[in-house]
Design goal:
The complex is a heterodimer of chains A (about 675) and B (about 325). With about 675 residues, chain A is an alpha/beta fold. In chain A, about 30% of the residues lie in helices and about 20% in strands. The relative contact order of chain A is 0.16. Chain B folds into two domains: about 190 residues, no CATH class; about 130 residues, no CATH class. The chains are: A alpha/beta (about 675), B alpha/beta (about 325). At the A-B interface, strand 1, strand 2, strand 3, helix 1 and helix 7 of A face strand 3, strand 10 and strand 11 of B. The complex binds iron/sulfur cluster (SF4) (3 copies).
Chain lengths: ~675, ~325
């Protein structure tokens, strides 16, 4: 019997637990009772995180496609082929004809290495990962307003706040161990404002539940700011000392009267006023948001408004306050921190900056690095269909299910000259790849993940990978070696982190020896720094906080006579993303075995649809059949669907309308039609 | 009655290693205490009951029931040595006694008894509770009990196996300690004990309205922790893993807080809300089990209250229930 302390592979809360193993097989988990994050608890996914690891579907050998069929191959053959064919694509079409998709599921060290491989070895900035699909709007919006696109405060702040505004986050389902903190806070007297038109669990505990129209967040937030300024509730001292461009913001919200806001959001004017007063009247107030804010064609604008609202009331830089984007994946924070982004190296250092490039080139031992920002993941499909992109290397992602407009994604991926997928299961994307590389999962390797509160925590290997599967970092190093690059010889992930830390000021003080017990929260600039639970305390990362005025823009595709419903997509509590792990976990799959769509009882009655009827849902991009779930969770005219399921895939319907600045797709609003299946 | 000096503990446990597969409370690097192998981490006999349920040794979160290869059924091989598990507090021993009965009743559970049979159980009590508080002795329900008298462990055997285990230890110099046991056990009327009986009576008299369960259920995030941590929760799910070579059937801890636990094949669920499921969980322990087994099946080990992220473990719920409806 052996116990290995590790970090949950599911959401960004970053709960830690021990994997219990017996003779090399996992037999369960035991939560860490001392973790400041989860304090002895876990959610249902964490409790079951051991369960998919030894599943017989795990990939155990490299696969190479011959005559249209994937055949087992040796590592030698597969690795050589990957390198040869990537180089061949680049030789024919240029360096930027290949793209590397990194993974928010992989460790910091692996994200760092894949971006190094792309930049130093293959000479392209075409590297990105699924943060593009979740919080790219945060990275852009908060970098502009605060200077740093991460959660400003810590999870422990939920125990010390008076009011929490939750907007676009179903926290108890998507960040359960933060949701539970919020529930506890309510028991001790904290007031909640839930702005979300789904009746999520937290709404049942809210002082105010605002069911505003999908896509009207800017109007709501501008309206709240209008009331705060008009009623003299703004924190003038904070504004004067810590911020700039206030006058422009004040002017821009001047005509967002409660009445105008009500008309734009579908709320009552009194609700807008009440929300503004409750939030601004608190001594300490937090804002929590997630993909309900970011996944819009105006996602960056939504984030800007949130930042302004917090600054306007002085709710930044103190315990129990802040702007708190909850990061989705276990290591999406780390994927961004490590520079798996087309325009940034690790630590958000710009590739466009020659000094930064020089520093990385020197350490990596290469003469130069590409200076033009690469392709964001969400533009890759279009680039490929326009003939600019010919090869993709995808590590631990499943764009066939996770990308918007599935039909388009499929055609593009199938038509690539080269598709390499490195994963733990034969996902829908791996199944159409030319070469598949079998990877170790979280339980089978060392490394670090960074959670949503910027806490860098260690994984400890519990069991061996199945068959010939190898850790992602080992595979990447082997590829670099075969591509003729000698600068990726590491004996352990610890060495990789040491190199990453030396190049990344916010991680400067991160070292494995310092991470035992409960990790460290960045910024952590040097080896004696204790980490930073609360950012922007005395000054913002950019100096003064910046107010950006924002105009309300409508969503890209609105309902009309032909497609009369708004479809909004998301996740369920029991599944994770494309389900490759949770759908292979007995209890989780039993809980939500199939795709469904939520619709309001009034709509259901009008269309003659009963609970659990099969329905046909169609949009301008595709159609699917799924099961109706008739529920007051959603308001009339709005449908909700999770995207986990290959059969009845929500992303066959969604719209790849991108935010012009962050390139995030508008997963939260598209227009669909709904019919009962004959 | 025998005794054991703290500095003799390691030697004593090491002397058992050839015959027994030993497990005892250990202190893991981040400060979490669990029942584990003595070689993995320093032992840690003092403190609150360990977080994980000690009964997991016989009923682990996941266990293989059998594998089928070419039509031949194979069960997991028996262990080469029986288990000796130290670390059961008296309340844990009551839980173990309860599930021993449960798994033996009617259709005897082979998988459980494959490990349980022949295993020895060591109880822990005395002034080794949190901050040196007194844990009243169990006075039975185990093979051997270790009682911390603030300077050494008094060791008493209750079975033939227990006598063999401690045969080589010296007799205690203070024979009057033996008389202390029943006295100490009687000394501490437990508030929680009264509370849980009171809550049980309210439930059985039908005095707790559905609205209460709606309130509580609204705070349940369906993490399943309360069930998974509970030493008297015995429900499991079964899965088959098929590959080209073999089929493996295993079972894993299940939870009545999950919708799928009671859902009918047609999709209807008679316990379709968190309110109904939470009611069921508590009702099972406080109202149904007393009828079937003659005792409340919550022995107040405190684990569900520690593990529940939203503060609705059984003791908290009982407290709220009694405050509102007594
Ligand atoms: S809350 Fe998130 S990190 Fe914690 S156990 Fe659940 S999925 Fe894992
Ligand atoms: S206190 Fe909770 S975990 Fe312990 S026996 Fe009672 S119900 Fe089970
Ligand atoms: S531990 Fe608490 S939140 Fe989790 S299932 Fe049990 S009652 Fe619900």
């Amino acid at each position: 019997m052996k116990r290995s302390l590790t970090v949950c592979p599911y959401c960004g809360v970053g709960c830690t637990f021990y994997l219990v193993s017996n003779d090399g097989r996992l037999v369960g988990v035991e939560p860490s009772t001392t973790s400041p994050v989860n304090r002895g608890g876990l959610c249902v996914k964490g409790w079951n995180a051991y369960a998919f690891v030894h599943h017989p579907d795990r990939l155990t050998t490299p696969l190479v496609r011959r005559d249209g069929v994937l055949h087992p191959a040796s590592w030698d053959e597969a690795l050589n082929l990957v390198v040869e064919r990537l180089q061949a694509v680049q030789a024919t079409h240029g360096k930027d004809a290949v793209m590397f998709a990194s993974s928010a599921k992989a460790t910091n060290e692996e994200n760092y290495l894949l971006m190094k491989l792309a930049r130093a070895v293959f000479g392209t900035n075409n590297i990105d990962h699924c943060a593009r699909l979740c919080h790219s709007s945060t990275v852009t919006g908060l970098a502009e307003t605060f200077g740093s696109g991460a959660m400003t405060n810590s999870i422990s702040c939920f125990d010390q706040t008076d009011v929490i505004l939750i907007i676009g986050s179903n926290t108890t389902e998507q960040h359960p161990l933060i949701g539970s903190r919020i529930l506890n806070a309510v028991q001790s007297g904290t007031h909640l404002i839930v702005a979300d038109n789904r009746r999520i669990r937290l709404a049942r505990h809210a002082a105010l539940h605002l069911r505003h129209k999908n896509g009207s967040d800017v109007a709501l937030l501008n309206g709240m700011m209008h009331v705060i300024i008009a009623e003299g509730l703004a924190d003038q001292e904070f504004i004067a000392d810590r911020t700039e461009n206030y006058a422009a913001l004040a002017a821009s919200v001047a005509d967002w009267t409660p009445e105008r806001t009500a008309a734009a959001t579908g709320l009552a004017a009194a609700e807008v006023v009440a929300a503004a007063r409750l939030y601004a009247g608190a001594e300490r107030a937090m804002i929590v948001y997630s993909m309900g804010i970011t996944q819009h064609s105006h996602g960056v604008d939504n984030v800007r408004c949130i930042a302004s609202l917090a600054m306007l009331t002085g709710n930044v830089g103190r315990p129990g306050t802040g702007v708190n984007p909850l990061r989705g994946q276990n290591n999406v924070q780390g994927g961004c921190d490590m520079g798996a982004l087309p325009d940034l190296f690790s630590g958000y250092q710009k590739v466009a900056d020659p000094l930064v490039r020089g520093k990385f080139a020197h350490t990596w031992g290469v003469s130069s690095l590409p200076s033009e920002p690469g392709l964001p993941l969400t533009r890759a499909m279009d680039a490929a269909s326009e003939g600019c992109l010919h090869g993709m290397f995808i590590m631990g992602e499943n764009p066939m299910l996770s990308d918007p407009d599935q039909g388009h994604a499929r055609t593009v991926l199938e038509n690539l000259e080269l598709l390499v997928v490195q994963d733990i299961f034969l996902t829908e994307t791996a199944a159409i790849a030319d070469i598949v590389l079998p990877a170790a999962c979280f339980a089978e390797k060392e490394g670090t993940f960074t959670n949503t509160e910027r806490r860098v925590q260690r994984l400890h290997k519990a069991v061996e990978p199945p068959g010939q599967a190898r850790a992602d970092w080992e595979i990447i190093c082997a590829l670099a070696e075969r591509a003729g690059y000698g600068g990726m010889r590491y004996t352990s992930p610890e060495e990789i982190m040491a190199e990453a830390a030396s190049l990344t000021p916010i991680y400067g003080g991160i070292a494995y020896g310092r991470l035992d017990r409960h990790g460290l929260q960045w910024p952590c600039p040097d080896k004696t720094h204790p980490g930073t639970p609360i950012m922007h305390q005395d000054r913002f990362t950019r100096g003064l906080g910046y107010f950006t005025p924002v105009a309300h823009r409508l969503s890209a595709e609105l309902p009309d006579a032909e497609y009369p419903f708004v479809l909004t997509t998301g996740r369920t509590y029991f599944h994770w993303h494309t389900g490759s792990m949770t759908r292979r976990t007995h209890l989780l799959d039993r809980e939500e075995p199939r795709s469904f769509i939520e619709l309001n009882p009034d709509d259901a009655a009008r269309l003659g649809i009963r609970h659990r009827d099969m329905v046909l849902v169609s949009s301008r991009r595709g159609e699917i059949t799924t099961e109706a779930r008739v529920t007051g969770m959603v308001i009339a005219g709005v449908l909700f669907m999770p995207f986990h399921f290959a059969e009845g895939a929500a992303n066959a319907l969604t719209n790849n309308a991108l935010d012009p600045e962050s390139s995030i797709p508008e997963f939260k609003v598209c227009a669909v039609r709904l019919e009962k299946m004959p | 009655m025998k005794m054991l000096h703290p500095d003799q503990l390691d030697r004593f446990f090491a002397s058992l290693a050839p015959t027994w597969e030993l497990r005892l409370p250990i202190l893991l690097p981040d400060g979490t205490r669990v029942i584990g192998c003595p070689n993995d981490a320093p032992h840690s006999l003092h403190g609150a009951p360990v977080a994980g349920k000690p009964t997991a040794a016989f009923f682990p979160q996941q266990s293989t029931l059998f594998t089928v290869t070419d039509g031949a059924i194979e069960e997991p091989p028996p262990a080469d040595r029986p288990l000796f598990i130290v670390g059961f507090h008296p309340r844990d021993l009551a839980c173990l006694r309860f599930i021993d009965r449960f798994f033996a009743d009617g259709c005897r559970d082979d998988c459980y008894f494959r490990v349980r049979h022949g295993a020895a159980i060591g109880g822990l009590s005395g002034y080794c509770g949190p901050a040196g508080s007194l844990i009243p002795p169990a006075g039975g329900d185990c093979d051997v009990e270790f009682f911390w008298d603030r300077s050494s462990w008094l060791v008493i055997a209750y079975s033939a196996t227990g006598n063999t285990l401690i045969a080589d230890l010296p007799e205690t110099a203070a024979p009057e300690a033996a008389e202390l046991f029943p006295q100490l056990a009687a000394e501490l009327p437990d508030e929680n004990e009264l509370l849980i009986r009171h809550a049980s009576a309210l439930l059985r008299a039908n005095r707790v309205p559905d609205l209460f369960w709606a309130d509580i259920g609204d705070r349940c995030i369906a993490c399943t922790g309360c069930n998974l941590a509970c030493p008297t929760c015995t429900c499991f799910g079964v899965q088959d893993w098929r590959s080209a070579q073999k089929t493996e059937r295993s079972r894993m801890w299940d939870s009545c807080q999950l919708d799928g636990f009671m859902r009918e094949a047609g999709g209807h669920n008679p316990l379709g809300s968190e309110a109904e499921r939470t009611r069921r969980r508590i009702h099972h322990k406080l109202a149904a089990d007393p009828e079937k087994w003659g005792e409340i099946s919550c022995f107040l080990c405190g684990r569900c209250d520690s593990v529940c992220p939203t503060g609705i473990g059984i003791i908290s719920v009982a407290r709220e229930m009694v405050a509102r409806f007594a």
